[in-house]
C-alpha cells in the first residue's frame, strides 16, 4: 500500500502544479492585447490542460485505490472527498475556460482570474490538514 500512497502523492503534486499554473496563464491572457501573444497563450493553455488532465485522473485512481484498501472511515474522509469533488469541478471548469479563451470568448478580467487562482490553494490546505490531522 505504500507504493500506492507514494504514487497518489506524486500525481496529486503534479496535478496541483497544473492547477496552480493554468489560472496564471488565464491572468496573463486576460491582460494581453497583442494577438500573437494571445495565440501563444492559447497554445500553452491547451497543452497544459491536456497534460494535467491525465495526472488528475491518476491521482483520483490511486486515491480511490487507497480508499478501498484502507476503508472509508471517519468524518474527515467524507469532507476530504467532498473537497476533491470540488477540485475536480474546478479542473473541469478550467477546461471550459480554456475553450472560451480559444474561441476568443473570455468574459472575465485578470482580477477575476487572480482570485480564481486561489481556490486550489485553499483546497490544498484543507485536504492536507484533514489527511494529516484526521480531526474527526
Radius of gyration from the alpha-carbon trace, in angstroms = 17 Å
Number of domains: 1
Estimate the global geometry from the Cα principal axes: elongated
Q: How would you spell out the order of helices and strands?
A: HHHHH
Q: Which parts are unreliable, with pLDDT below 50 for 5 consecutive residues or more?
A: none
DSSP summary, beta strand count: 0
How many helices?
Answer: 5
Instruction: Tell me, rounded to a whole number, the average pLDDT.
Output: 96
Short key terms for the protein model shown above:
136 residues, single chain, mainly alpha
Q: What would you note in describing this structure?
A:
The protein has helices at 2-31, 35-70, 75-102, 110-116, 119-133. 85% of the residues lie in helices and 0% in strands. Helix 1 (2-31) packs antiparallel against helix 2 (35-70) and helix 1 runs parallel beside helix 3 (75-102). It is elongated, with a radius of gyration of 17 Å. It has one domain (2-133). It has 5 helices and no strands. 20% of the residues are buried. The protein is mostly helical and 136 residues long.
Short account of what is shown:
Helix content is 85%, strand content 0%. It is mainly alpha-helical.
